[in-house]
């Protein structure tokens, strides 16, 4: 049995890898997403420390430091969106030369630019809400959705570590490893508590 090397599958892999690699944020709104977890985890750590839960506080601060390193790495080591678009177009051309069917990309129009501005606003809204509500829910006991969120951090940032090492991005690699360590420590510290 051979592997399916269709253009759609390769393009999906390329887009997934761009998600794992990260793209340098552009403008103030682009920085909200990588910086919001830093503020949230730091505030949660302070609340745990004040409540006497030292291990959970240290885990939250480790995650905050990790998110901070990832944000710093995205600002200094990651390619810009224009550089990444150029790379994707090169990969599409390469797939076309191999005879693979490559999905066509839509031309930039005024409607797509307006849609992009709307998506940029929504990109800021999600992390901002997570930052506001994350502090409140981060101080409570671990719930099933919180465990799922921590598991997501372990998987996503765990995949990001070897990829960042392979790409020669030490800040992103170290930050991602700290996020994974903080999430695992937080799960271990809260494992004795009953689920709600």
What report would you give on this structure?
With 196 residues, the chain is an all-alpha fold. The chain is built from seven helices and no strands. It has helices at residues 7-21, 27-50, 54-76, 81-97, 110-138, 144-167, 170-189. The longest helix is centred in the middle third of the chain and has 29 residues, at 110-138. The N and C termini lie far apart (46 Å). The relative contact order is 0.18. α6 (144-167) runs antiparallel to α7. The chain is elongated and about 60 Å long.
What is the compact description of this entry?
This protein is an all-alpha fold and 196 residues long.
Topology:
Layout: H1 7-21, H2 27-50, H3 54-76, H4 81-97, H5 110-138, H6 144-167, H7 170-189
Topology, number of strands? 0
Spatial gap, N to C terminus: 46 Å
Low-confidence stretches: none
Order of helices and strands: HHHHHHH
Indicate the radius of gyration in whole angstroms.
Answer: 19 Å
User: How many strands, which pairing sense, and closed or not: the largest β-sheet?
Assistant: none
The amount of beta strand, in percent, is: under 5%
Mean pLDDT: 76
Structural class: mainly alpha
């Amino acid at each position: 049995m051979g592997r399916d090397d269709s253009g759609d599958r390769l393009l999906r892999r390329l887009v997934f890898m761009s998600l794992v690699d990260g793209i340098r944020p552009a403008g103030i709104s682009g920085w909200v997403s990588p910086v919001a977890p830093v503020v949230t985890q730091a505030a949660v750590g302070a609340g745990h420390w004040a409540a006497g839960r030292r291990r959970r506080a240290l885990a939250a601060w480790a995650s905050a430091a990790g998110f901070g390193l990832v944000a710093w790495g995205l600002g200094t080591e990651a390619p810009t969106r224009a550089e990444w678009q150029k790379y994707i177009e090169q990969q599409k051309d390469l797939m076309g030369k191999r005879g693979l069917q490559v999905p066509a990309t839509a031309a930039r129009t005024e409607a797509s630019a307006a849609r992009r501005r709307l998506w940029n606003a929504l990109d800021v809204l999600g992390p901002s809400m997570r930052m506001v509500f994350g502090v409140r829910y981060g101080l409570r006991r671990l719930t099933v959705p919180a465990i799922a969120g921590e598991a997501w951090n372990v998987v996503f940032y765990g995949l990001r570590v070897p990829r960042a090492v392979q790409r020669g991005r030490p800040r992103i690699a170290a930050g991602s490893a700290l996020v994974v360590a903080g999430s695992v420590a937080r799960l271990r510290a809260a494992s004795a508590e009953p689920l709600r």
